[in-house]
């Protein structure tokens, strides 16, 4: 079975602090994909990053960075020098290939981490 | 611009009425999904469809129905059989290939009283 755990329900930081959002996943598949999405107060989920299971290289995009470690089944997300605009709910998700043909990719979401950046 | 549209953004209904939420995409994506979001529970899959005229139940399909008559459209009907229909409903689409990410619509907030 597949599962994504985001143990941090809510986090508050003061502007300019760094913050790390944790994501732990479970799967027996050897090929899988990991995602992070941002959900601002408007409600629409915005895609941030995708990683496949064969690429453990960490990635940095501006103030955002992601740390993928297969050894600990984690895909953590760090925001450096946080800003008020980073306030949102962040979801980690796992996608695996279908076990039955024509059922397509299956996505499994964590329960999200609500981040509040205080000015 | 390509994207997913959901209408309306806010919807109010009386208990016992069926209501249909629309979802249209012009991304030429094969797969479409409906998720329900309740506070503190993340996203739960209601239905998904990989091709026209075919769809599968997700984790919480009871009380919902869908159709996929066109590639671009995947409407969701919330029936009177759904016990707790008040929620935020998100439609998404994806290319039919391994690792394709989900693109989401803006969502419809349904309130049933």
Structural description of this entry:
The complex is a heterodimer of chains A (119) and B (113). In chain A, 0% of the residues lie in helices and 53% in strands. Chain A is mainly β and 119 residues long. In chain A, strands 2, 5, 6, 10, 11 and 12 form a 6-stranded mixed β-sheet that branches. In chain A, strands 3-9-8-7 form a 4-stranded antiparallel β-sheet, with no helix packed on it. Chain A has a two-stranded antiparallel sheet with strand order 1-4. The radius of gyration of chain A is 14 Å and the shape is globular. The mean pLDDT of chain A is 92. Chain B is mainly β. Helix content of chain B is 0%, strand content 50%. In chain B, strands 2, 4, 5, 6, 9, 10 and 11 form a 7-stranded mixed β-sheet that branches. In chain B, strands 1-3-8-7 form a 4-stranded antiparallel β-sheet, with no helix packed on it. In chain B, strand 4 and strand 5 (43-51) form a beta hairpin. At the A-B interface, strand 5, strand 6 and strand 10 of A face strand 5, strand 9 and strand 10 of B.
Low-confidence stretches of chain A: none
Supply the helix-strand structural class of chain A: mainly beta
Number of separate strands of chain B: 11
Largest interface: A-B, 26 and 29 residues
Q: Give the helix proportion of chain A (percent range).
A: under 10%
Going by helix content, strand content and strand pairing, the class of chain B is mainly beta
Indicate the radius of gyration of chain A in whole angstroms: 14 Å
Shape of chain A: globular
Parts with pLDDT < 50 across at least 5 consecutive residues of chain B = none
Q: Sum up the overall morphology of chain B in one term.
A: globular
**Strand-residue fraction of chain A?**
over 45%
Please provide the ordered H/E string of secondary-structure elements of chain A. Answer: EEEEEEEEEEEE
**How much β-strand is present in the residues of chain B?**
over 45%
